[in-house]
């Protein structure tokens, strides 16, 4: 991490020979190193803290003095596991969460790399360096769903180059953890490389038993945020993993997993907390890392422990404790002025020695980014007319006497196989007599293949919807009416990515997501909230029974969660590791 202040300058400020640029006077410092609350002054020079103590000798003629009497000084909060692509983008997310006190985010590069490649991603990272706060990265070493050409895209040379970037602190979660369990050579070699260059490997071990977890830890995984019970969290801690307690829009698990602390006597020194990419409305209502601290304290965690989990613990995990995570000389000046130890909403946010937010309002400027210049993949590589063919969305069913494996939604993201008798008409499944069943097609943006499924308990009266917002970012089309599905698909094509809902012949919702098919390019976080709320409302009106539509769409096309999944290779039974209906290639006349 680069600092503007030189060590020699900080020494002289600490001795009182050079005046501070900013001096925070009379506040109570939350000392995350000693676990104490101390009434002390803090002197800041350029972007660093130079002095913490009772002296005021660093105040000079031009020093800006902030009276912090009656307030608490906390290190800036750290989100060590962020996904800056949940409709919002890196700029709009930072604009929202920085005023809430999160001065460091560590961000998953999944969809950026998928659509930008190594060079485009590097160029974007360079341009985003002017964002206020610390915007760091984790690099994916595999995608969230296997697809043709994945291993060529995620190759040794480019992955190694990205991991060596100073803005990259480690590898992102390997959601397909069975690859690690089965000793995938590329992944294990990459884990060794990461250790060699002094970085870490984030993990994702959803559903992994304690016995199998041993092998995952042995493979080199450093941390996991997927525990959903206190016992699972304790298992991870006992096996040496940094254990990240989650409270997100999809998985609001903190009330349960926090019991490993409140009902036990475990050390919290290797425990973190994360919001794990919540949808926009969740951040708007619950906050970001500030919300984690607030809820943890409400649930009985001592204030100092809660703050340590999102400051010094996170900094140590990131191997950046010499730079961030605490209020001490030589550290970067990321400081929050908290009015109390209840709300944890800062009155003032200092990031890199600059006052960047006050009373919830962003004061710092953010860069204007031309996102298009990084993209190397075309939005669609086939004629739009292809999408007019209703057979594209139909499920092949040549023998009506045999049941069809239907993907039944048990929850937002968990499905199971439900074999269902469905009539066949002209070689295709006829859903006209089955309320609640919908056709689903995943269409390659390159025009190479289409995978098909039938869904139940996704919605009831949905005529047509198309979305590039999913793990593959291919074109996902869902509905009960092929003509409405085609119209929605063509509109998403026109937008270059996004989500469209059609009733009959009427488009009732358009959400343009031109940035990788996942994100709005709008710098306003409010726009992301608006889009999310509109989408959830429209689908719930049409029978969607759950609370987090974005993660339902995201994970329908993954290949690591239980049930039937719609993936680039076809309709996939995860548990059996079996393709039930193979993807169909486009015939040449269509493309």
Summarize the structure.
It is built from 18 helices and 31 strands.
What does this structure look like?
It is a single chain. With 591 residues, the chain is α/β, with parallel strands linked by helices. It is 27% helix and 26% strand. It has 18 helices and 31 strands. The strands form 6 sheets. Strands 1, 2, 3, 4, 5, 14, 15, 16 and 17 form a 9-stranded mixed beta sheet that branches. A hairpin with a 4-residue loop joins strand 29 (570-573) and strand 30. The longest helix has 18 residues, at 110-127. The protein is elongated and about 85 Å long. The model has no long low-confidence stretch (mean pLDDT 97).
**What is the number of helical segments per DSSP (H or I, 4+ residues)?**
18
Number of domains: 2
Low-confidence spans: pLDDT under 50, at least 5 residues? none
Task: Provide mean pLDDT, rounded.
Answer: 97
Q: Which CATH first-tier class of the largest domain would you pick?
A: Alpha Beta
What is the share of helical residues?
25-40%
Which structural class do the helices and strands define? Answer: alpha/beta
Name the overall outline.
elongated
Q: Report the major sheet.
A: 9 strands, mixed
Q: What is the count of β-strands? A: 31
CATH superfamily of the largest domain: Metal-dependent hydrolases
Fill in the CATH topology of the largest domain.
TIM Barrel
Cα(first) to Cα(last) distance is 49 Å
What is the CATH architecture assignment of the largest domain? Alpha-Beta Barrel
């Amino acid at each position: 991490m680069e600092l503007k202040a030189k060590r020699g300058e900080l020494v002289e400020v600490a001795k009182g020979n050079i005046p501070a640029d900013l001096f925070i006077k009379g506040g109570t410092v939350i000392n995350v190193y000693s676990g104490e609350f101390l009434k002390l002054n803090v002197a800041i020079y350029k972007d660093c803290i130079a002095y913490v103590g009772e002296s005021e000798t660093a105040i000079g003629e031009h020093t800006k003095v902030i009276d912090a009497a009656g307030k608490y000084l906390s290190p800036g909060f750290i989100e060590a596991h962020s996904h800056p692509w949940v409709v919002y983008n890196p700029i709009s997310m930072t604009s929202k969460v920085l005023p809430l006190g999160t001065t460091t985010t560590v961000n998953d590069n999944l969809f950026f790399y998928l659509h930008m490649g190594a060079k485009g991603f590097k160029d974007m990272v360079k341009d985003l360096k002017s964002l206020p706060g610390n915007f760091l990265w984790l690099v994916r070493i595999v995608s969230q769903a296997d697809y043709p050409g994945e291993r060529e895209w995620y190759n040794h040379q480019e992955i190694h180059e990205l991991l060596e970037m100073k803005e990259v602190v480690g590898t992102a979660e390997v959601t397909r953890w069975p690859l690690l369990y089965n000793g995938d050579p590329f992944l294990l070699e990459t884990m060794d490389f990461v250790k060699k260059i002094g970085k870490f490997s984030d993990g994702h071990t959803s559903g992994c038993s304690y016995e199998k977890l041993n092998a995952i830890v042995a493979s080199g995984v450093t941390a996991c945020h997927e525990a959903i019970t206190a016992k699972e969290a304790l298992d991870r801690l006992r096996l040496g993993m940094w254990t990240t307690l989650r409270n997100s829009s999809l998985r609001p698990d903190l009330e349960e997993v926090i019991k490993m602390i409140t009902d036990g006597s475990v050390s919290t020194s290797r425990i973190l907390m994360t919001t794990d990419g919540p949808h926009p409305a969740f951040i708007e209502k619950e906050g970001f890392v500030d919300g984690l601290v607030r809820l943890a304290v409400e649930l009985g965690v001592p204030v100092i422990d809660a703050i340590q989990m999102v400051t010094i613990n996170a900094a140590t995990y990131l191997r950046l404790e010499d730079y961030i995570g605490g209020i001490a000389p030589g550290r970067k000046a990321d400081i929050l002025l908290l009015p109390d130890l209840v709300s944890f909403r800062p009155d003032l946010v200092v990031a890199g020695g600059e006052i960047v937010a006050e009373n919830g309002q962003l004061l710092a400027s953010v860069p204007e980014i031309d996102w298009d210049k990084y993209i190397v993949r075309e939005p669609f590589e086939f004629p739009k007319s292809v999408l007019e063919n209703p057979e594209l969305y139909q499920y092949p069913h040549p023998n009506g006497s045999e049941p069809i494996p239907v993907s039944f939604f048990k929850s937002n993201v968990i499905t199971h196989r439900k074999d269902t008798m469905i009539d066949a008409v002209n070689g295709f499944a006829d859903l006209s007599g089955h309320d609640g069943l919908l056709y689903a097609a995943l269409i390659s943006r390159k025009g190479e293949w289409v995978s098909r499924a039938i869904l139940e308990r996704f919605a009831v009266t949905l005529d047509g919807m198309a979305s590039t917002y999913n793990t593959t970012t291919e074109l996902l089309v869902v509905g009960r009416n092929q003509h409405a599905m085609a119209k929605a698909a063509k509109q998403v094509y026109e937008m270059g990515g996004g989500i469209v809902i059609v009733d009959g012949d009427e488009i009732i919702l358009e959400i343009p997501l031109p940035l990788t098919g996942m994100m709005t390019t709008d710098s306003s976080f409010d726009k992301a909230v608006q889009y999310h709320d509109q989408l959830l409302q429209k689908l719930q009106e049409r029978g969607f029974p759950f609370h987090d539509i974005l993660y339902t769409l995201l994970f329908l096309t993954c290949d690591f969660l239980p049930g039937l999944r719609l993936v680039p290779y076809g309709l996939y039974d995860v548990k059996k590791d079996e393709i039930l209906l193979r993807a169909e290639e486009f015939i040449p006349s269509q493309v």
